[in-house]
Amino acid sequence: MVDVSQYVLPPETKVAFLDCETAFKGLTDKEKLYAHYISQASWYGGLICLFQTSPESPGIYLLFHKLFGSQSVEELQSAAEAQGVTKDEFHAFLIYAAGILSNSGNYKSFGDSKIIPNLPKEKFEKILMSSKAAKEIQGVWQEISERVYSLVDRQRELGLGKKGTTTYYSSNCDLVDAKVAQEFMSAKDISPYNTRLFKTQENGKVVYEVRLASSSSADGDLPGVGAVLGSHDFTPKETGTPCVFKVTRGDYSDLMALVVENLTKAEKYAANEMEKKMLNEYAKSFTTGSIPQHKEGSRYWIKNKGPIVETYIGFIESYRDPFGLRGEFEGFVAVVNKEMSAKFAELVNQAERLLPLLPWPAAFEKDKFLRPDFTSLDVLTFAGSGIPAGINIPNYDDIRQDEGFKNVSLGNVLIAGYKEDKISFLDPKDAELFIKLKIQSFEVQVGLHELLGHGSGKLFIKNADGSYNFDQESVVNPETKEKITDCYNENETWDSKFSVISSSYEECRAECVGIYLCLSTDALRIFGYTDDSADDIIYVNWLSMARSGLLALEFYSPETGAWRQAHMQARFCILRVMLEAGQGLVTITKTTGDDGKEDILLKLDRSKIIGVGKPAIGNFLRKLQVYKSLGDVDSGKKMYDYYSDVHDREEPHFLSLRSTVLDRKQPRRMFAQHNTVLEGDKVGLKNYEATASGLIQSWMERFPAGADLDQKLTNLWQKEKPFFTD
């Protein structure tokens, strides 16, 4: 029996407004125009996420866009209530609509489980049919209604093959197909970031189409890659069965064209030549489908130090690809918070003193620390399926290793999105301190996680000429004490080697760096914490990590044995390491809550963080780094799978605790965001209420009702339906 409550957004789900008004008002007219056009490019590109989530997500979006474009929420509510819909049912309808918009589809951006409406299907239909758009949306509803409410096994969460739903791959693809495709793409030096995979049969032979995202569908060479477009006969080592690969471009072409159009307009208002070149390369990449051109734009981006308006755009994070390689479209525009950025700048200045504190040999650290830009930003626009608290980009290994990267902490996201109304699983004293210091400790964790977590560590590579980027004679594996014989080949990347576990494994490494280095008095002093205040920050940071590991059980699916969220899997692994350390560092006890229901109490002994916790995390972190550096997938996966295992074979019986965690879970906040509006030759800013209605209104005003965009989305949706039949 399916527990439907795990797939609905509860009525108490809150909306937070991402306020950037003060920062925006501080911009010049030119900077505002720059921010406006990149925001437009980001929002249009963000619609691509609908097509990267589920077969029905574009249809659900079109349904709501037509529905709320025909009349106000208040008018629709009056019409629905006249047809017997209750206020609670209409509220549930609005929460669902807001959830679809804020997650860019009907699967949670944080957790990958399906979202279904929290009201009966007949009442949902009554609301639709009582609207002014009833006739216009009837056809769309008939196409999607079954899948909107369906909780059959394969549709409950994102996944590949029979394990779940995805539109990065046609519905007849499985893990073997993903491996075969990666083998082909590695051989042709094609990056998977901006691709999808579609499988068909022709003349009894399997045909794979690798479809690149671009506004152009024309034939020709792929800049930076060469003559790869077209048909290729291929026999993969994975199966030994001959097949055909067709490399095409033009995926999401109409939306990509709108992205290019607005980036081109933004170029006129760029602050310097670096920004102009950056935007020009992005536009070329989105036109041709060439990742090398996007990498070139990213090189200009990391060189553009300290811009007032910060932005990044493209196919970035691979969390939601079940195989862990394909990037989701994302674009953001933000304004620098100078006060907090000064602390991060000092962290960068001290980085070369802090890096040697990490628990791996010096040879496993980058040859030279590439001093990045690290700023605290107030988000003006964040288009994609979800909004993180911090980012370390670009994700291209060769650039990060040899040229540099940038870190950003999203200050207004931290403030608006990480408040908790009820603190579960802690005693009253801990809960009080947790509420007081959660945001402050999280700022420290984000800073260390992004800069010294994602920004640290070396990959050992064998170059095409047979040389190595490390000294083979002197460098040994600290786990085996033997010389290093295997490592990455030149065309291999971290993602391509570790694929399915790469995202979560890397987040685990960065989270460990954060809690390990927060024990440094030098690190905490940068953020203004000394003496007792520093001890409290350390305690709350470690307590938060342990508690997050417990909360992570919500994001584990016992039916498939799969984790649905990379960061939460990482935090569960860290909790397992803390428990394994023993000596009472962390204890988890089953209790009864004030409401008479089963509860859990998690305790952290602050006196044992240094003596017990630090060496345990240090040993785990060293192994994470060594296996990553060497590209040792077998050892890395074996260890990570061990700590990721949720079972009842021993205390504290995590599999059984999961039901209590689910009973006491709290819904994540959704974000309403500003819109920028052209007012003659200036740009205005629109604010919205922090409600489901306000969030819906912001989306309607972002994309005013009109046949042109809706038709482009409809055409793309109809074009790919034959590939998603299950």
TrEMBL record:
Record keywords, A-Z: Aminopeptidase, Cytoplasm, Hydrolase, Metal-binding, Metalloprotease, Protease, Zinc
GO cellular component labels: cytoplasm
InterPro entries, per the entry: Dipeptidyl-peptase3 (IPR005317), Peptidase_M49 (IPR039461)
GO biological process: proteolysis
Enzyme class: hydrolase
Pfam families tied to this protein: Peptidase_M49 (PF03571)
Catalytic activity: Release of an N-terminal dipeptide from a peptide comprising four or more residues, with broad specificity. Also acts on dipeptidyl 2-naphthylamides
Subcellular location: Cytoplasm
Cofactor: Zn(2+)
PANTHER family: DIPEPTIDYL PEPTIDASE 3, DIPEPTIDYL PEPTIDASE III-RELATED
Family per record: Belongs to the peptidase M49 family.
Descriptive protein name: Dipeptidyl peptidase 3
